[in-house]
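User: I've been going back and forth on whether these two constructs are worth ordering. Before I decide, could you fold them both?

Assistant: Sure. I'll take them in the order you sent them. The first construct and its structure tokens:
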Amino acid sequence: MVKDLTYLSYPLPEDVERLVYAGNLSRARRVIDRRLADPKVPACLKERLRFELRIIDEIPRTYTVSESELLRRFTDAVEGFTHEEMEDLRDAGTLDWVMIDGTVFFKNNAFENAVKSCPALHSRLKNPSMLDDSTENARMLNEVIAKMKLHGHAHYRYHLRTTLSIAQHAQRPGQRIRVHLPLPLRDGQCTPGSRIATEPAAKHIADETEPQRTAYFEEIYQPGMTFTADFTYDIDAPYADPDPAKVSPEQPSFDTEEMLPHIRFTPFIRALCAELKGDETNPLRIARRFYDYCTTNAVYRYVPPYFTKVNIPEYFAAGQRGDCGMHAITFITLCRCAGIPAQWQAGLYTRPGDIGNHDWARFYVAPYGWLYCDGSFGGSAYRAGCKERHDFYFTNLDPFRMVANRDFQQEFDPPKTFLRADPYDSQSGEVEYDDCGLTTHDFDIHREMLSWEVIDD
């Protein structure tokens, strides 16, 4: 069951942990296999060890770039770039790396991450067009923020198509295949349209109120088969400018509980929460302190699949690095630890011309109700020196979204048999055969924005 991943909070045996951190993966597998065959090892610990095998399998598939290859990419793209600069980026946490059998390997998109997150490199790029998209994105965001402040909201209508195809190595003609594709749900700023077209015909369309809504397919796989969901939805994003002085003295207590393994009030999270909170008692001001910690101290970094981290908030808050979902779940965990209701939202960022996975958070402060928080976009604005945009993403979101998730670590309808490729979020689809689930390396997702329009109301 997706929601019951408590065993990820169990400790690994010290020798296994040491081997994995040292990058001695083949020996770590041998030691784990030996423990799994040992009747003296508790069944609960064996669950944790089996999951560690999955993490070990993922590491060499995610960290594929050698030191020399990464340096070549930097020197080809950045004027006067040196090996010492690369080492400095590595020590600063910008470049994600691991040891595998005594050799350093960097994450497959470490170069792209550095270009995205290091403004100091931008003026030295030999091909400045590498930044064109981020510049256009900032321009569109600034424009829509100004309109939201003027009109009180922004209302957009979208028509999207998602197509999933199976990688050649994972195709099994004649075998039963089950596929889940994310769909927009009804929650907050998102209203799904009545039109959903699927090819082949979906066996089940989950209700609009499901926490992680999908279209479910079940077919006998044929060579070249793809799975498509074509849908419309509206995003009506409100603009909020809450006044801390008007916050109610009485606040609700829903959505303040733990959810292991990640939303967990560990000693470190409790200490960090208390340090950031200080003597402040106003929940709006406290949430702002959590937002500022996540956006002004952390290095944005593309990360390996979330299942490789057994406590995301501690990974993010202690290392001060991570991506959009890590910003979000850390903010949520700190808020809940402080007694402030907080929830996960996620799906897609759908700016015209750019569609990609994205996660964010929302939190509840009476009398204002649910307010939004996008630590990733806020951090980007902070790095760019744009205070107005940085302030906006505390309590607000732009309308360039598709909401497929309104909660973290939830089951599908119908449930998936095997552990999901992403046990926590639903953005890129899930696939399984009768005997195994597929990983994100085994299938591809293609998204198209067929149309979009601004709704004047």
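The second construct, handled the same way:
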Amino acid sequence: MKTVFSDTQLAHAPAQEISDGELKPAVEIPSRAEFVLKAVRDRNVGDIIAPEEFPVRPIHRVHAPDYVSFLENFWDSWTTAGRSKEAFPFVWPIRSLRPDVEVSHIDGLLGRYSMDAGTPLGEHTYKAARASVDTALTGAKLLQGGEQAAFALCRPPGHHAGFDFFGGYCFFNNAAVAAQYLRDNGLNRVAILDVDYHHGNGTQALFYDRPDVLFLSIHADPKDEYPYFLGYADETGEHAGTGFTRNWALPPGTDWESYAPALQEACRWLQVYKPEALIVSLGLDCYEHDPISGFKFKSDDFFRLGERLAKVGLPTLFLLEGGYAVDVLGENCVNVLEGFAG
């Protein structure tokens, strides 16, 4: 199985995040990718290749052009306003405020284009996020070229990013861009299975009214966990997409034995839908010692996850999403890939 990775993804290196009412050391840090890359090399998973550089058009197929431009030009606007440290939004156009007005101040734009205050933007965020998208697109192109499996070592992650907003450490939705790319290049039906501890709200929303991309997510109950306002079982799609979204919201403390039935049901939906390719949003934060999560996977359980996904029998692209127990992230990730490869 080929792994796609670019060192440019390491350039986004936040120092802090806002969590639990205070500034804390950031957890979505470059070493996440470095530990995974080392494990891929040490355990001889397969060749490691650099991504191709894609034009912006595949991103515009998923994200609003004005949002993409905001990210691209953000640091210039930020420094022009006299700022020099990483940025956090602090005001949002919710409910009785007006989301339709055109604002020009950088703080207003930060609020317009974000969903939370815990996702810092820095000088190199845009180029790292673009490299992450290129990594996902290169993985998708490998499937298009006949590979049965590929691993896109994407960082920063993507599944919380929506049409015109960032959040949850995510800026461009790598899984959605890859799925749309496969659709635009000849596939009629694509499925996305999100196994991150947190619900992939951005991915769900992007395909919620479409029947050509099936979205399945197994995650912590949003009554108790981020993103709180999406990811419930009664969300099944709308209009032409009715029935093509499925959520399994599980309680805190879920272990593999309790998780496996939901995974089995998700795999059954894949068999019913019969997609031509599967994209797995591979969050590894179900691990028992993840610092911001509450499931109880052991490292060996990630082998089982990979083994079960292999039985689906589809060309499969794995995309790295969350997972913040950095020291074991590489082990857990490669366990999935080796389980899948048999």
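Notes on the second construct follow. Strands lie at 2-4, 16-19, 22-25, 48-49, 149-152, 190-194, 213-220, 245-250, 277-282, 316-320. The domain at 2-341 is CATH 3.40.800.20 (Arginase; Chain A).
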